Sequence to fold (670 residues):
Amino acid sequence: MSRIGPTLARLRDARRTALVPFITAGDPSVEATVPALHALVGGGADLLELGVPFSDPEADGPAIQAASERALANGVTLRQVLELVADFRARDTATPVILMGYLNSILAMGESDFVERAAAAGVDGFIVVNLPPEEAGTLRTAMSARNMDLIFLAAPTTTDERLELIDGVASGFIYHVALKGITGADHIAVSPVAANVARLRRKTRLPVLVGFGIKNGAMARAVAEHADGVVVGAALVSRMGEMAGRAGDIPAMLSGAVGEIRRALDA
Amino acid sequence: MPKSGSNYAQPSGDGHFGQYGGRFVAETLMHALDELQAVYEEAGSDPKFEAEFNHYLANFVGRPTPLYFAERLTETLGGPRIYLKREDLNHTGAHKVNNCIGQALIAKRMGKPRIIAETGAGQHGVATATVAARFGMTCQVYMGVEDIHRQALNVYRMKLLGAEVIPVHSGSKTLKDALNEALRDWVTNVDDTHYIIGSVAGPHPYPALVRDFQSVIGREARAQCLEAEGRLPDTLVACVGGGSNAMGLFYPFIDDPEIRMVGVEAAGLGLATGRHAAPLNDGAVGVLHGNRTYLMQDDDGQILETHSISAGLDYPGVGPEHSLLKDIGRAEYDAVTDDAALDAFRLLNRTEGIMPALESSHAVAWVVQRAAELERGQVVIVNLSGRGDKDIHTVSELDGIEL
Fold:
């Protein structure tokens, strides 16, 4: 079965906040991705989010757009992303890997083909940014049949009625988008996040992870008071973007950056 | 405003045109789309809304636009009787303003004081800036830097109208990227902002809503044709980028199966070259910008860069209703090249004293190419969706003339 549920349950029992870093597959190079994933785990990541690059990432801010463009310039395809996950699994069979991307990548491969390949590669879930519950039917069923979680988002604008709809189809966890905006947006205010997560918890028993706008250990710590986990993406990806020509230093940078957030969460 | 008793009831309640359309957006926007749909449905059953819409169409836009018998073009081609639906005579110079008036009234009803839009050729941007000025709303328009260069005149018009034009540097720097950026703005400012999508594309309810506002074109054309010819037309022709002028013309004729409907896409340098913007002719089904439709994409689902001489057609997708009409065979979709569109542009200038937009020139070009196959005396309506002043720089550059 998906590693996501058991991992989050174990963390909850240990009163430990899940730390979920995000990087884009194939950025800055295809060869860099698997070492980067291991470095993130070494630094203290509990789950991994791996971005599937897309030409038109309409929900992403400049940092992840740029990462997508770098990855696409390297010719990265969804098929290759799945191969990278399989490579990662050769050394790590425990850490959940969640893909994040846009629906068209899956449709181009074909839903059932994608589900088979993803399951075989060791993928645990997929956050499809532009796939609300209303449109998710067939993909959700197919992923669920192969023990993968289709992860749904909840936003500050999501009504209570919609939270019920989302809870009805969600598995693994619910990804709460901390702000109205795109990935890597401005610093978030903690009190509305707390209120929205509390509202969400009245509708779901699934773990709630919070992302969009969490940039450092202090912010992660503040959000962790209210959430089961935090997702940190754009902050890592933009640092990777600044390391062109020094790709060999990326694993150390990533494990250092994740380690800093880990220590803030555990302090 | 679907017709009662129609055999054609699209979209479904959840916004699908067959397998197309739908609502593929980030969760943050779902409530705004629900709200837009609710306000639109409520407005649709409010006679005061319709009266207000019609008031602005008549007195601000200048409707009805003529259905003009193109006598010299007809003589020159020697086949069908060609009528031009003169959307170029609308205030701001294209059909885009019909939809903008409707959506500005919707925004007013929702109490949203800020308007955003994407634009390619700048016609939708100008129309949006115009209605924002008229209704006292702030307005920001996203435009690819490539298009800003091609359409300097419209950029300046938008600025004069008080709108801010925001250059988009991402991706191919054209219409699709402007749409991405507008979506990013909307997701950030959704509380006080209405996004006026300019075509029959985007997530539900936009494709239906824009079609309904634009179908004034077809309703007028129907009545005008009956008056001029004593019968309905045989063939309707319109250019298709996103496809709003085509949907606006086609929709009121959709229950008349004997009327042929032809959408003309941009074949750019030729369909075989891959350098075109014709997803219905040479694309595959996928999801982009909130809806499922035919797209220009590679095997990995990455959206391809398009090419057309006409900025307004330079888009890799198409409104989902066109995808359905293609599949069920109710409309047919052809494509004409940059060169053919340019020839038609010049021909209409000389034969009728009318300068069409390069977008609309594609529709004219189709008739020029097919005139010999069309039965003599049959009645063809070409949607002249916009005027060509904005394209003078593009054409003069090709002629090697610096203005």
About this structure: Strands of chain A lie at 18-24, 48-51, 97-101, 125-128, 149-154, 174-177, 208-211, 229-232. The mean pLDDT of chain A is 95. Chain A touches chain B at residues 54-61, 65, 69, 72, 77-79, 102-109, 129-132, 134-135, 152-159, 162, 166, 177, 180-182, 185 (CB under 8 Å). The longest helix of chain A spans residues 250-266.
